[in-house]
Task: inverse folding
C-alpha cells in the first residue's frame, strides 16, 4: 500500500534500531536502503542487547519480512556473524530475510583500501569505521563493483580476482601493508552463507508487496548530516542517507512514500571527525556521554556530545520531508536542571539559522536558548498525561521551532520505554 521511511536526522546513532523494532508490528516488510556494516543498530529486548549492522531491525518481529535493498553494501563476513548471532538465540531468518541481487559486496581488499586511505590522510582522516564502505561505493559508482547477484554465477571467482588485482595495484601505490590472503577464507565462507538466503530482484519484490496492499517501513542507516551530498562533506559517509535514498536504494517511486519518521536525540552526538557546532568539550559533555552511554555500537569509540542544534535539525527536516519527529534519549538530560538548545549560529559576525556551505571552514558559533530541565520523573512516565510542565514545554518548543509534530518520545533503551504521542503508533 505505502512506504513509510524512518531515518536519523543527525550524525547517526539516534536510536533507529530501537524505533524500527518498536514500529515493526505495523508493517509487513522492513527494508534497509543504504549503508552497510558501518551501521550499528541496537535493540534491547527483554533486558538483552542486540546490535545489527546489515540486517534490518525488523527481524525480532516474527510477522515481518525483511529486505536488504540494492542500496546497501554487504560484507559477507559481518553478515555471517550476524546470522550466527541470531541463530545462537534460536532465531532463524532464512525464510523471512530477502537480499537484493543488486546490493554490492564489500571485499577484504575494500577494507584494506579504507584503512590505507585513512592512514594516508593522517590528522585530516574522516574517522571512518574502516568497514570498507567508501571503497565499495567508489567501485559501485566507478562501475567496477561486484554485486550479490554475481555470486550466483559460475565466473564469480574470476570477477573477484579481477577486482582484487585492481585493488592490489592501488594498495601498492598507497605503500600499505596488508594480509588479504588471510582474510579470504572468512570472506568465501560468508559468500556461502549469503548463497543460502533468498536472493531477489529487490525492486520487483518490494513493488509486488506494495501492489498486494501491504505496508513497508524503509530503514535508514547513519544520519542526514552524514549524507554524501548534504552532510558535512568530506566528513560524511558514502551514501545518500536522506529520504530520496530510500527510492534509489529500494527501487520504489517517490509517489509511494507516505510518512517520514525523522529521529533526533534530545541532544547531539557525533562519532568520527568533522564539524560539530554545539560540541561540548567540557564537563557537561562528559556528563552527557556518561549518562547516555555514548560509545559507538560498531567501533566502541567515545561519541562526541553537545546540545541540540536546531539549524541543523531544521535543515535535515527540510531535506527529508519529515512528517513525524521522534525524540530519543530525553531521559539522559534528566541530570541537568537547565538544558540548552542552539537556535542560530553566528558566522563571520552575522546571525543565521542556515547551515553554511562549508561548516568545516567556518567559525560557526552557536546561540543558545535555555530551557528548564524535566528531572528524573521522566523515568516513571508511561503516557503523555504524566508529562511534567518542563517536558511538555520542551516538546511544544521543538514542535513550534520545526513545524513538525512529535509523534514518539523515547525514555530509555528498552523496547517498552516509549511514549506514543500519536496514538496510532501505540503498540
Ligand atoms: P542507531 O544506530 O540509530 O540504531 O543507534 P545506536 O544503537 O547506535 O545508538 C543508540 C543507543 O542509545 C543504543 O545504545 C540504544 O540502546 C540507546 N537508546 C535508544 N533510545 C534510547 C533512549 O531513549 N534513552 C536511552 N537512555 N538510551 C536509548
Ligand atoms: P548508524 O546507522 C554514527 C561515521 C563514521 C565516520 C563517517 C564515515 O549506526 O547510525 P564510514 O565508515 O561510513 O566511511 O564513516 O561516518 N558513521 C557513523 N556514525 N553512526 C553510524 O551508523 C555511522 N556510520 C558511519 O564514524 O565519521
Ligand atoms: Mg548506531
Result:
Amino acid at each position: 500500500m505505502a512506504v513509510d521511511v524512518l531515518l536519523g536526522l543527525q550524525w547517526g546513532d539516534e536510536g533507529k534500531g530501537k524505533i524500527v523494532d518498536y514500529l515493526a508490528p505495523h508493517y509487513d516488510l522492513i527494508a534497509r536502503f543504504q549503508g552497510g556494516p558501518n551501521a550499528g543498530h541496537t535493540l534491547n529486548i527483554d533486558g538483552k542487547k542486540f546490535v545489527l549492522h546489515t540486517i534490518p531491525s525488523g527481524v525480532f518481529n516474527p510477522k515481518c519480512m525483511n529486505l536488504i535493498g540494492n542500496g546497501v553494501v554487504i560484507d559477507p563476513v559481518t553478515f555471517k556473524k550476524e546470522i550466527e548471532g541470531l541463530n545462537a538465540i534460536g532465531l532463524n531468518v532464512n525464510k523471512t530475510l530477502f537480499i537484493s541481487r543488486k546490493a554490492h559486496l564489500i571485499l577484504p581488499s575494500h577494507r584494506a583500501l579504507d584503512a590505507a586511505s585513512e592512514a594516508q590522510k593522517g590528522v585530516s582522516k574522516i574517522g571512518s569505521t574502516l568497514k570498507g564502505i567508501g571503497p565499495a561505493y567508489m567501485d559501485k559508482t566507478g562501475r567496477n563493483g561486484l554485486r550479490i547477484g554475481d555470486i550466483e554465477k559460475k565466473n564469480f571467482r574470476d570477477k573477484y580476482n579481477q577486482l582484487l588485482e585492481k585493488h592490489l595495484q592501488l594498495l601498492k601505490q598507497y605503500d600499505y601493508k596488508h594480509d588479504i590472503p588471510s582474510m579470504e577464507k572468512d570472506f568465501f565462507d560468508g559468500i556461502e552463507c549469503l548463497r543460502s538466503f533468498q536472493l531477489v530482484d529487490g525492486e520487483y519484490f518490494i513493488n509486488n508487496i506494495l501492489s498486494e496492499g501491504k505496508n513497508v517501513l524503509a530503514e535508514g542507516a547513519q544520519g542526514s548530516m552524514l549524507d554524501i551530498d548534504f552532510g558535512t562533506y568530506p566528513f560524511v559517509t558514502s551514501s545518500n542517507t536522506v529520504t530520496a535514498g530510500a527510492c534509489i536504494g529500494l527501487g520504489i517511486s517517490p509517489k509511494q512514500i507516505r510518512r517520514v519518521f525523522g529521529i533526533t536525540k534530545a541532544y547531539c552526538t557525533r562519532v568520527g571527525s568533522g564539524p560539530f557546532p554545539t560540541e561540548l568539550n567540557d564537563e557537561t559533555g562528559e556528563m552527557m556521554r556518561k549518562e547516555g552511554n555514548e560509545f559507538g555500537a560498531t567501533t566502541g569509540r567515545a561519541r562526541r556530545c553537545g546540545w541540540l542544534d536546531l539549524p541543523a535539525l531544521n535543515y535535515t527536516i527540510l531535506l527529508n520531508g519529515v512528517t513525524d519527529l521522534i525524540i530519543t534519549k530525553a531521559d539522559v538530560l534528566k541530570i541537568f536542571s537547565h538544558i540548552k538548545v542552539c537556535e542560530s549560529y553566528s558566522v563571520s559576525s552575522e546571525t543565521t539559522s542556515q547551515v553554511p556551505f562549508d561548516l568545516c571552514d567556518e567559525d560557526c558559533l552557536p546561540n543558545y536558548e535555555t530551557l528548564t530541565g524535566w528531572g528524573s520523573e521522566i523515568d516513571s512516565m508511561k503516557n503523555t498525561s504524566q508529562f511534567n510542565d518542563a517536558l511538555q514545554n520542551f516538546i511544544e518548543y521543538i514542535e513550534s521551532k520545526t513545524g513538525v509534530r512529535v509523534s514518539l518520545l523515547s525514555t530509555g533503551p528498552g523496547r517498552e520505554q516509549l511514549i506514543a504521542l500519536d496514538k496510532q503508533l501505540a503498540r
User: Anything to note?
Assistant: The chain has a mean pLDDT of 97. Residues 407 and 424 are 9 Å apart (CA to CA). The domain at 3-102+199-260 is CATH 3.40.440.10 (Adenylosuccinate Synthetase; Chain A, domain 1). The pocket of guanosine-5'-diphosphate (ligand 1) is lined by residues 8, 12-18, 39-42, 44, 292, 297, 328-329, 331-332, 410-413 (CB under 6 Å).
